[in-house]
Design goal:
single chain; 326 residues; mainly alpha; 0% strand
């Protein structure tokens, strides 16, 4: 049974009023984000034709980029007129029939008017699911440009709905839920040919393991700052070689003892030497060094034996020498 909630406005709180068209709720509210609604209510209350953008943003508590997005949104919906924006071209094609692009020509994104997106939401259950899950994942309502981007990921680049949600969850877990961060990650996957759900899942697991590994390496190397790009390459190669954090810490110890400083190239040389000898654990390292010590000791014994002499032979030699001297 649906839960019913009783809500009533306290009209004594208001000193003045302005009209709000019912169409705002009937047609637009499900498409508009917080900044768009704030701007529209502000425009309905203030009948001026020109506004100071910075002042309006301050009053509404929104950023100027959000202000621009809101202006474009309402302009495309035909609710306001603005000479400072250029509406995006309408896309009325059958998007379900669109073919995914190849990595070589993935340069252009399709644009959609709010009306087109509204129609897609009404007729395409998978789009409704995509937007709903995306909003739950990022914890906020989607902007129009973000809705466009998500549709492009699905219909233009060829990612299925579950793959898009998987990407959003990964970016959220990394603390990067901006459209730019999500787009960068999606572009990286696409350019590397990673487009199906299982391949994306495997790549995300690999990245997650790497970042955990990198953080552990930072700890044993006593790095207080994030590794540089070059240092990250070293760390990634050590992981690919199969070394544990413990072994990297051991290599770091030997590097500092030998050079009195932390040197990634020096540590890398140590690890490469161990890798060539298939030494990947401290036990294997101790066994190798014990064998080398034993081998060195045996060699020294042989050298010492080569330098020894027989006393009888020495006596014979000295006697013969003495006879010759005479």
């Amino acid at each position: 049974m649906a839960e019913k909630v009783s809500l009533k406005l306290n009209n004594s709180k208001w000193k003045r009023f302005f009209s709000v068209p019912c169409a705002l709720v009937d047609d637009y509210i499900k498409l508009s984000d917080e900044a768009s609604l704030k701007l529209l209510l502000y425009l309905m209350c203030d009948e001026s034709d020109e506004f100071d953008k910075a002042e309006v943003c301050k009053k509404l508590g929104i950023k100027e980029a959000s202000f621009d997005d809101a202006v474009i949104f309402w302009n495309e919906m035909g609710v306001i007129e603005s000479e400072s924006v250029t509406p995006s071209p309408t896309v009325e094609a059958k998007f379900a029939d669109a073919s995914p692009v190849s990595a070589s020509n993935a340069k252009v994104r399709l644009t959609y008017t709010p009306k087109t997106i509204s129609d897609m939401i009404d007729t395409d259950e998978s789009i409704r699911e995509l937007f709903s899950e995306a909003e739950k994942t990022v914890g906020r309502l989607l902007k129009h440009t973000e809705q466009e981007f998500l549709i492009n990921l699905r219909d233009y680049y060829g990612f299925d709905t579950q793959s898009v949600i998987l990407m959003l969850e990964y970016c959220r877990d990394c603390g990067k839920v901006s459209a730019k961060a999500i787009e960068n990650f999606a572009s990286e996957l696409f350019q590397n040919g990673i487009t199906d759900f299982f391949a994306i899942d495997a790549e995300i697991k690999r990245k997650t393991e790497y970042h955990t590994f990198e953080n552990e390496v930072r700890r044993v190397l006593f790095l207080e700052t994030k590794p540089t790009a070059k240092q990250s390459q070293y760390i990634s190669s050590w992981q690919d070689m199969g070394f544990s954090v413990e072994m990297i810490g051991e290599a770091r110890e030997r590097c500092v003892n030998q050079t009195n400083k932390l040197s990634f190239p020096y540590i890398n040389k140590i690890l490469q030497t161990w890798a060539e000898k298939r030494i990947f654990t401290l036990e294997a390292l101790e066994a190798d060094e014990a064998n080398r010590t034993k081998s060195t000791f045996s060699k020294n014994e042989r050298n010492s034996s080569d330098c020894s002499f027989d006393l009888n032979e020495f006596d014979s030699f000295t006697l013969s020498q003495s006879h010759l001297d005479k």
